[in-house]
Write a structure and sequence with these properties.
16 helices, about 475 residues, alpha/beta, TIM Barrel
């Protein structure tokens, strides 16, 4: 095969001393490598990496070529947004893609009328691309010499600064079936070093079923604001999925992939020295009903699995218990491990769960914990959920609704059910409100109603700090 001379780099956030794959960016790189004249790599950038060293590595990589740099899954990191702007100002073509690319490019709703709101990153990027990655193929085929403003999925500004936003194309299983897991690099001494991953992902479902149905949700004011108002301290929003989830707002629920695409993904997984496929996360918020069938797919391919990591909701765990037990029986026969790597408990208080629109209550979470503890006793070698086994279950704290009484009750529950032993992560996750999530609508309504302004921190809204007071 003729060596490609054109290059493209996709930059994304990464954690230090890790070796996990990045499904979205690496699938995008695979599409570019398979369908264009460009060679694409993915560079995972940690918080500790030097921006100057990264720029030097990019110069070494592109040599005399124009830099074409994509940015995906940045997690709100301002250093990477600033890097994109620096590169653009120096003549590079910078492309924003991945989750929430459209909203982050356009900016927060109503920012033109409210200067304190997040105004977007359109001046940091040449253009943005929302939706399926294969939309980049015709853009790269033109060598980016033609006008991209007419291309599908593109967001850009015209010469007058007006926003152009083109609809994206539908998801296509054909492009979701192949991943080259050898495309991931990290920064090493101002150069890019390939990284061999030890945990990959298999995409089985796009989005979350909880985000399929819109409902009206009544969300309480931050408790420290309640005493300052005389009217009912509640805001009603229309919401799909959890109110804090930007993925629910971005993708909603797009359904599952066909088995042909899933089989191709399984074939693509790297193998461990023992011939088994490396551990992987099954991307499916409700994986249990199809889990026994998943083992059959691997068997049809004569593939040996080692470990399947699952991320799911507490209620989906309880509803799919029969299927999970059947899968565990198969896993025991085949010496495969099933790890519940993340159960989205988020809280153990009904008021907070209601405000998060989790669709579950405290008792559901406790029933799920009782269930996994029981399964561990029955399948000690083939079932995992413990944090020392690599699990990191969802626990959001602090939140705007942590009254002294609610905090006392949560701590009582933690103590009574000994949740710190096996369930709670070493560090909780503070509530993060992305500007395009449901809670962002909630907080903007409070701002308008109470004539206050909450702090903006990049792409997120700092619910803990108004202009005049701290709410923590």
């Amino acid at each position: 095969m003729k060596e490609k001379t054109k290059k493209l780099v996709i930059i994304t956030g990464y954690f230090t001393d890790e070796s996990y794959g990045l499904l979205g960016p690496q699938m995008a790189a695979t599409i570019i490598n398979d369908h264009t004249d460009f060679e694409a790599i993915v560079v995972g950038v940690t918080n500790e990496d030097s921006t100057q060293a990264l720029k030097t590595a990019l110069t070494h990589h592109f040599k005399n070529q124009q830099k074409i740099v994509g940015f995906s899954s940045l997690g709100g990191r301002l250093d990477l947004f600033d890097l994109a702007r620096e590169l653009k100002d120096e003549g590079a073509i910078t492309i924003l893609a991945g989750p929430q690319a459209g909203p982050d490019y356009k900016g927060e709703a109503g920012w033109q009328s409210y200067p304190h709101r997040f105004k977007g990153m359109s001046d940091h990027f040449s253009f943005a691309l929302h939706g399926p990655a294969q939309q980049i193929i015709p853009i790269l085929a033109s060598d980016l010499d033609s006008e991209v403003s007419t291309c599908e999925g593109v967001l850009c500004r015209d010469e007058h600064g007006q926003l152009i936003e083109n609809p994206s194309i539908p998801w296509d299983d054909t492009y979701l079936s192949t991943v080259d897991w050898q495309t991931l690099y990290v920064l090493k001494d101002a150069d890019f070093e390939p990284l061999s991953i030890t945990c990959a992902q298999v995409l089985q479902q796009i989005g979350c079923q909880h985000a399929a149905k819109e409902r009206q949700v009544s969300i309480d004011y931050p408790w420290r604001l309640v005493k300052e108002v005389t009217h009912p301290a509640v805001i009603t929003i229309c919401q799909k999925g959890c109110s804090f989830c930007d993925v629910a707002a971005d993708k909603g629920y797009m359904g599952g992939l066909n088995e042909t695409a899933i089989k191709k993904q399984l074939r693509c997984l790297p193998e461990s020295p023992d011939g088994r496929k490396i551990p992987f996360e099954l991307i499916n918020e409700s994986p249990l009903p199809k889990l026994p069938r998943f083992f059959r797919l691997a068997e049809e391919l004569s593939i040996q699995l080692s470990q399947i990591n699952l991320t799911l909701r507490a209620d989906y765990l309880l509803k799919g218990l029969t299927s999970l037990e059947a899968a565990l029986n198969i896993a025991t026969q085949k010496n495969v491990r099933i790890l519940l790597s993340s159960i989205g408990f988020e809280s153990f208080d009904d008021t907070i769960l209601k405000n998060l629109n989790k669709g579950v209550d405290r008792q559901t979470n406790l029933d799920a914990i009782k269930t996994v503890r029981s399964l561990k006793a029955r399948f000690p070698a083939n079932f995992g959920y413990l944090k020392e086994e690599g699990a990191n279950h969802g626990f959001i704290h602090p939140t705007p609704w942590d009254t002294p009484e609610i905090s006392r009750q949560i701590n009582k529950t933690i103590s009574m059910y000994q949740l710190s032993l096996d369930i709670l992560p070493n560090h909780s996750t503070p509530l993060i409100i992305h500007h395009a999530s449901g809670l962002a609508d909630w907080i903007r309504q409070i701002e308008t109603k109470e004539h206050i302004e909450f702090q903006r921190v990049g792409t997120t809204i700092g619910w803990w700090q108004t202009k005049d007071q701290t709410l923590l």
